[in-house]
Task: structure prediction
Amino acid sequence: MLAHCWIFSYGNCRGKIISSWETIETAWYDTSVQTCALCGQMIPKRFWEAEVRGEALVFCSEECEQLYRSYWLPKYGPKENER
Ligand SMILES: [Zn+2]
Result:
């Protein structure tokens, strides 16, 4: 369950409120792999789920989510005022 982060508009949200660790439940015959939205690393067991711009994204760690927000989004993501 992802709740809206009310302090994000102040640029102060570290993802603590809307993010959570989730566990991948896969059977041995399930060959699908979850990969990190930032670094593309395969995530074997636990993934970090965070809401980024209304989308639920999967990261391998909190650090990747913070990098995604502070580096990737401003550089490659859609601009805030292009909605
Ligand atoms: Zn990662």
